[in-house]
Amino acid sequence: MEDNGSGWPVGTAPHCGAGGKGNTSSRVFEVALQNSSSNRSSQFSGVELLQSYKPLIIPCYALVVLVAIFGNYLLLYVICHTRKMHNVTNFFIGNLAFSDMLMCATCVPFTLAYAFNPRGWVFGRFMCYLVFLIQPVTVYVSVFTLTAIAVDRYYATVHPLKKRISVSACTYVLSGIWLLSCGLVAPAVAHTYHVEFQEEGFTICEEFWMGQEKERLAYAYSTLFITYVMPLSALCISYLCISVKLRNCVAPGHCTQSQAEAQRARKRKTFRLVSLVVAAFGICWLPIHVFNVLRDIDIDLINKHYFLLIQLLCHLCAMSSSCCNPFLYAWLHDRFRAELRKMFNCHRRIGIHTNNCATASVVL
């Protein structure tokens, strides 16, 4: 399972390349077959090692998927069913939850099936191109939405008197995020090929950049900057400004000792939450980006025997970010937990206190 040019591992073939379609498909087939044959012994040992860890890897992935889908679904449910939550901040958080759910639904099952199936890609040509489009799009959408949330919170905290964007403008921003994400993955999709090795009995679905190594590296490093360096910088700068603003903020009037202590407790909680948000994003996505950079610099820097296992573990770490987001952006907020309990209590008492359920509201 080699990594594709965009940095999201789903395949089993080595990197090559291709220009246009048409007769280049046969060239892709020949180069892929040649590279596959030359590295067959080392690849086989890597696949054999990966198969031995299958009983451990699959439950870990299953846990990530269950937690991510359940947590993000509850977050979306509360936002959609609570009218007073229909504001800009919560729409951004809802978009993040939706993209995280879609990321888990597309990245995880197909990655596992492709990694462990000896026949390679078994989902057909159409799904090959569809999955290779949706997977990176959801990653782009998630990181762009995280950046938008950080900027939104920055203006809400540091510049509270400035006019914030309207709900209609938020809709345009979210639409732009999805359109931009689709545009950024176009080069990867244009170099994606579905190749069948009938005699060998397996099929690959991979990016091939034959004769375009400089272009592939440029795309790979720009992807690294856009999906990691830029959003991480935005998170750090925005939340650093928020922390400084809160630290220097002094409540008007004379505070009692208990009020001052409560204020300090709120500030400490905010600082911890901000630190967790930055750390979660940085830590979850760091391994896969380090892996990709090492592979692009010199693939021999990574032991071929452990290549596939390391790659899959890095991918698992990246996918775990979708589990962290609902907790960081909702579950750790007292108001959200109270609202969720209220909604569950309303469902239990449905038919008795139905009118009370309609008044549920929370703003994250």
From TrEMBL:
Gene Ontology annotations for the cellular component aspect, listed alphabetically: neuron projection; plasma membrane
Chief subcellular location: membrane
Keywords for the protein's UniProt record, in alphabetical order: Cell membrane, Disulfide bond, G-protein coupled receptor, Glycoprotein, Membrane, Receptor, Transducer, Transmembrane, Transmembrane helix
Transmembrane segments: 56-79, 91-116, 122-151, 172-190, 218-242, 273-294, 306-332
KW Transmembrane (keyword) present: yes
Annotated coiled-coil segments of the chain: none
Oligomeric and partner information: Interacts through its C-terminal region with the PDZ domain-containing proteins GRIP1, GRIP2 and PICK1. Interacts with PDZ domains 4 and 5 of GRIP1 and with the PDZ domain of PICK1.
Protein name per the record: Prolactin-releasing peptide receptor
